[in-house]
Amino acid sequence: MEKIYEPQKTEKKIYQFWEKGGWFKPQGKKGQKPFVITLPPPNVTGELHLGHAMYAIEDLMVRYHRMLGNPTLWLPGFDHASIAVEFLVNKQLKKDGQSKKEIGREEFLKKAQEFAEKSKSYIKSQLISLGFSLDWSREAYTMDELRSQAVKEAFQKLYEQGLIYQGKRMITWCPRCQTALSDLENDYEQVEGHLYYMKYGPFVLATTRPETKFGDTAVAVHPQDKRYQKWIGQEFTYASLVGPRQMKVVADEAVDSKFGTGVVKVTPGHDLTDFEIGQRHHLKTINVIDQNGRLTKVAGKFAGLSVSEARQAVVKALEKKGDLVKVEKITHNIGHCQRCGAITEPMVSKQWFVKTKPLAEPAIKAVKQGQIKIIPKRFEKVYFHWLTNIRDWCISRQLWWGHKIPLEGENDVLDTWFSSGLWPFSTLGWPKKTKDYETFYPNNVRETGYDILFFWVAREIMLALFLTGKIPYKVVYLHGLVRDEHGKKMSKTAGNILDPLELTKKYGTDALRMALLVGNAPGNDLSLSEEKVKAYRNFANKVWNASRFILSFEQESQPKANKDDQWILSELKTVTKKVTDGLNRYRFDLAAENIYHFFWHTFCDKYLEMAKKRRAETQLVLLEVLETSLKLLHPLMPFLTEAIWQLAKNDKKATQNRFFQSEALLIAPWPKR
């Protein structure tokens, strides 16, 4: 063995060795139940980030089950990322002095396809470099022929059952991208703003959006607010900035009587709560802001102004008229387009929707009855809350890149989450009853971030139950967000982003994987620093050096066990049980911590020091501890452990004593506890 472990020289060769052996494809003993995970498909938008490096959790699971002898399938794939790719291609066109309208739909889609393919290829190489043992022979893509067929079939079945309809409802609109957005594509940011108190007929009310007052069709109070009981159901006329307006006073429990003066203006066309109040009280909906983010003709002399321009102009006019009572500084959440950063606008728009209430009921039942287990359990409350209060899902997007809505004369494309919602079964050949579908569906686990429990996981469960009549998987394992060493969110603006590939080049893939797994309890955010990765590089070196010491012994072993040997073998048995129990209970953090502490502190710091004094007598014990430790470490640190295993396999003394018998550690049997 070399004196120093150099991951950069060995990792690529080891991955090629695994692939050549065909061991990423499902194998295992007859009669064993398969273990299946479909990779949450990364967007074809360029590079992986630390969130994707968390796939290490899935790789840990599949490597463990592979060693248990289960036919194990980890199916890879990619998401076409409708709005993200369209934004990036538009950005490139702008740099070249072009626009998508100038080059036309056909040429634009060609460029988007080229971008996606190039990105897909690059991301695949990154996944390979991180050691993920995916079955590449089954690679899927949300826009390939099979997945496109699944999308059409799913749409048709929902449409035929009356669960897809076109209608005017409240959506989130990006005036720059010119499309409806999903909730996940609408990032809320805390922004400093103002609360404007203004006269409104006989009332004074507070609003953050005075520019939308031209779309008001009522004022509302809480039904139990004693201050305004006499006004409920009454009408009044007031002199607005564009002439006299007739207004009704309605009582609704959605009103917070502690906000402002307890009276709120109702703008059904530009606020979700107001829209729902409007629906309950049969109020008229007026669009006062158009798709370009400018005021419409209903705003009179303010028409054509942008939202920010109109706000300033309206406030100035109210002040001049004597209707502005006071202004308070506040901090509030404002939606921004995740892609272009523009402030988004809630508005009523004619779109395609999925009726979700009928789909949500079976999805709630599946978790309540224990068919699907959510880890950690506390997220069940979040899941039930979302699905109990679910609103219809807007699935149409005013884009060119994506799955075109399969109806004649329709040019919109489907929300990306529609195709990814079919992922657990479309990847296995559905709607056809393929051999893969019959063998590997339902999946075993959906592992993902807790932030998309509703946006993706809940939709997968709803669509799976409706379209296949089966749950999509048995367990939902939720990990947290990767934050910096101070617990702050990583962002380009903050300058605290860590590049996973740079870290692996510097410290090795196994060091990064251990840094992501140790201390990573389910559902909790993880703080990560370069120092933590460096520390596990040191651990990798410790494992290498200990292995080198054990395998470098030239003399014939003369077994003569004493109490020290019995003690370390007892400790080995204990740690084997702890690691196995941790993996079985989805406490991967505890499994990682137990084997780390055993190998470094119990084995290296204590037993190896004892063994140096009676080297020949301890050789068999040393080999047994090393072999078992490598097996326990393999799901966590696959490259390092496989590199040592291959060297040990060529050690005659070790193999003569029936250690390191498997052709690859990847497929070696898991140690008995």
Give an account of the 3D structure.
This protein has 673 residues and is of the alpha/beta class. Among the domains are: 179-347, Isoleucyl-tRNA Synthetase, domain 2; 528-667, Orthogonal Bundle (Isoleucyl-tRNA Synthetase, Domain 1), CATH 1.10.730.10. It has 22 helices and 22 strands. The protein has a four-stranded antiparallel sheet with strand order 6-5-14-16. It has a four-stranded mixed sheet with strand order 10-11-9-12. Helix 14 links the parallel strand 19 (445-449) and strand 20 (475-479). Helix 4 crosses helix 5 and helix 9 packs across helix 14 (453-468). The protein is elongated and about 105 Å long. The two termini are 30 Å apart. The mean pLDDT is 94.
Task: List the total number of helices.
Answer: 22
Multimerization state: single chain
Strand content: 15-25%
* Secondary-structure-derived class: alpha/beta
- CATH architecture designation of the domain at 179-347: Alpha-Beta Complex
Helix content: 40-55%
Poorly predicted segments: none
Provide mean pLDDT, rounded.
Answer: 94
Radius of gyration: 30 Å
What is the fold-level CATH name, i.e. the topology of the domain at 179-347? Answer: Isoleucyl-tRNA Synthetase, domain 2
Backbone shape: elongated
Compact summary:
The chain is α/β, with parallel strands linked by helices and 673 residues long.
What are the salient characteristics of this protein?
alpha/beta; Isoleucyl-tRNA Synthetase, domain 2; Isoleucyl-tRNA Synthetase, Domain 1; 4-stranded antiparallel β-sheet; 4-stranded mixed β-sheet
